[in-house]
Amino acid sequence: MSTPKAVYSLEDLEALAQSPLDPPVKLAVIGHPVAHSRSPDMHNAALRAAGIDSQYIRVDLTEDQLPQALQTFAALGFTGVNVTIPHKGAVIPLLDQVDPLAARIGSVNTIVFDHEQGTKAGFNSDAPGFRQAIRDEFAVDVQDLRVLLLGAGGGAGRAAAIQCANDHCDRLVLVNRTLEKAQALVKELQPDFGPRRLAGPLARLEAIPWDPDLLTRALDHIDLIVNCTNIGMKAADSALLTASQLQPHHLVYDMIYAPPRTRLIEAAEAAGARAANGLSMLICQGAISFEYWFNRRPSIDAMKRGLRGGE
Ligand code: NAP
User: How confident is the model at residue 157 (pLDDT cuts 50, 70, 90)?
Assistant: First the structure.
């Protein structure tokens, strides 16, 4: 077995045609930067557990390298690729097919190569990965919840909002530092929130400014609170919500998984609420990508062990 590099460049990738690794490299995550990605840890563990003779690497690419890189992946017989920041939108025009959910979000994080047809198709596993993570963590479906998204104007927030809209959740409240982005999303999602289920005098879909008093009032009519911002990743980050704003009936999902216990999670637990971090979303979106590539479910236990560094 050959040891892969921590991060490959486009040149390194092209060199794999002459000097293949063992097991052969057939999967990758592409981004810029990409060194932080935990995807190889969980996917390589899942590949080994499934007895699939392939390995998964990280490739750092700039946007102008994407067309060449996609050709190289196809020439190397790649099964698929994950796409991370900042290329999730930029890959779309380079694909032959884009699944309707990925097209609606405007974001592809999974590419599947069909070598018989000579085509590449794009999918989004972040949105269904979010939905599955909520089900796994709290044993409830987003369709039955009143959901508040903090950071609805970012990429992850948009994916979560569109999944909630597709599932016709009971109520969706979008909060974003730049209010205009949340307002634009409300306009876009309005057709999904018709009068099918009424929430009394409350709007089923609305954007509210990032104001502590307005937020506290809004939280009276919310079941699930999701942090889709970057706030909480650094030790110096302020708490997004305080324990006094949260209530025991709240479910709090922080998309951040490093650190595992953010100040939001601490505040939720202090308020007697249930809380979970974003590790389950990382695993769920990875498992959905794996299914797109291999048409079978990966071992979730192996993925968890891989992330813990146990495999
Ligand atoms: P992004 O596109 O850059 O969006 C960042 C969001 O955070 C925007 O809504 C932004 O608001 C908001 N924000 C940033 N700094 C802020 C501040 N100081 N005050 C208030 N709001 C602030 O990033 P992303 O890709 O959506 O990722 C967001 C988070 O989700 C990251 O922590 C990422 O690690 C996590 N994530 C986790 C998973 C998983 O599998 N667990 C998957 C995807 C993402 P503005 O619009 O006003 O700038």
Answer: very high
